[in-house]
Amino acid sequence: MNNVIIIEDEPAARNELAILLEQEQGFQLVGYAGALVEAKHLIQTAAPDLVFMDINLYDCTAFDVLNELETIPPHIIFVTAYNEFAIKAIKYGALDYLLKPVDEEEFKEAVDRFRSQKGDRAVKAQITLAGDRLQSPHEPRHIALPALGQVRIIALADVRYCQGDGPYTHFFLTNGKKETVSKPLKFYETLLPDQQFLRTHQSYIINTAFVKSVLNHSTILLDEAEEIPISHRRKNEILRKIIP
């Protein structure tokens, strides 16, 4: 049996989550909280396997609560009203989330993901990354990449380029390694900072710091001799960003 707590300051949203949870087998709801002190105490005493946590609470944010804990719960599903900046921060940390009002099917999918999670999820590092992104106006320096039951925290400066492959994205790094993530390239196009990264083609996003030259206005040559195609449709726009 998995112990679950709900950190949510809105009674209607809290009840909605509780009703949805009652429909799932193998879960026991052991408590609610809606403010910093009580949320911190509940997490410490209940030692939950799973936490549903609203980002904006009565007197704090979810990250304020988590930053005061010595031990982070092993799995957190954040719940938030639509807020583009908050969602982007969560995506940087590769954290699970639900949008209010919570859709029943999306809730089931989130619970199923919890059931299937294995390996090192690097939860503390993921939360630190997302919290820093949410609270800082500066461009991010790292991103979390989930793959094969693990989550790797990668410096954006170490990403040479990304290649889309249907529902997957391959990250090619400066150390010669490749990280494959089960998200399409478009997901990362909206996430990677456009001051540093540029989508040059349907299948490629490059880190402009590694551009060596442009060949015949149709191919970008990176400094390790990788040749990246340029989209004919967006050629002029792309070249203006690479060659000021």
How would you characterize the overall build of this protein?
With 244 residues, the chain is an alpha/beta fold. It has a 5-stranded parallel sheet with strand order 2-1-3-4-5, sandwiched between helices. A 5-stranded antiparallel sheet has the order 10-9-8-12-11. The protein is elongated. The protein starts with a strand and ends with a helix.
pLDDT averaged residue by residue: 92
Write down the oligomeric state: single chain
- Envelope shape: elongated
The percent of residues in helical segments reads 25-40%
Structural class: alpha/beta
Full CATH superfamily name of the largest domain: Response regulator
Strand tally is: 15
Radius of gyration: 20 Å
Topology:
Blueprint: E1 2-7, H1 11-22, E2 27-33, H2 36-46, E3 50-54, H3 62-67, E4 76-80, H4 84-92, E5 96-99, H5 104-116, H6 123-135, E6 142-147, E7 150-155, E8 159-165, E9 168-173, E10 178-181, H7 185-189, E11 197-201, E12 204-207, E13 211-215, E14 219-222, E15 227-229, H8 235-242
Parallel strand pairs: 1-2, 1-3, 3-4, 4-5
Antiparallel strand pairs: 6-7, 8-9, 8-12, 9-10, 11-12, 13-14, 14-15
